């Protein structure tokens, strides 16, 4: 707990409490902007005094932080999940051909191949609908670098512009699907041995979810 000015490490300290927009509260506008009722004002769900209410409660939280005081939890927002209307049809089941497992490679990187900056490397896997698991804390696509013998470390994932994850169904009404990973090798990439990794989740006939991982053959970047 800070007890004197000497305890402050910096002259100016700002405490910012920020959250994701478009969740429970949506937009928060000023009283004046609310009266105009443009897009932001019309999306301020709790009336013209929403901002004042936020400021009031944030002041209480700030004082509690400064004074090292406990804050009693307030009322919980209502759970409206069951009242949401979804127009996207649900995933019924994911399928694969006979003799194939989810994650098996259906179009591998050529064996003993090598590539250089600017070239495209691709691999495809028997996969499942990505809506079964959104991989919020993970990734659908990963490119790994061989650092030492059997020591693969992440190099790029589907957050990177150079690595793309493409999901498709060969036929519109088919339960089978494929995941294609494409890597446009960027300039300045570390030379060495790489491979693709794919992560997915398949839905069974009775609704169970099965997670799987897949790997392509290794290839060399020169």
Automatic annotation (TrEMBL):
Gene3D superfamilies: Neutral/alkaline non-lysosomal ceramidase, C-terminal domain
GO molecular function: metal ion binding; N-acylsphingosine amidohydrolase activity
Enzyme type, top EC level: hydrolase
Cofactor(s) the record lists: Zn(2+)
Reaction(s) this enzyme catalyzes, per UniProt: an N-acylsphing-4-enine + H2O = sphing-4-enine + a fatty acid
A GO cellular component annotation in the UniProt record: membrane
Cofactor note: Binds 1 zinc ion per subunit.
Keyword match Lipid biosynthesis: no
Residues spanning the membrane: none
UniProt cross-references to Pfam families, sorted A to Z: Ceramidase_alk (PF04734), Ceramidse_alk_C (PF17048)
UniProt similarity note: Belongs to the neutral ceramidase family.
Protein name per UniProt: ceramidase
Gene label: LOC106774765
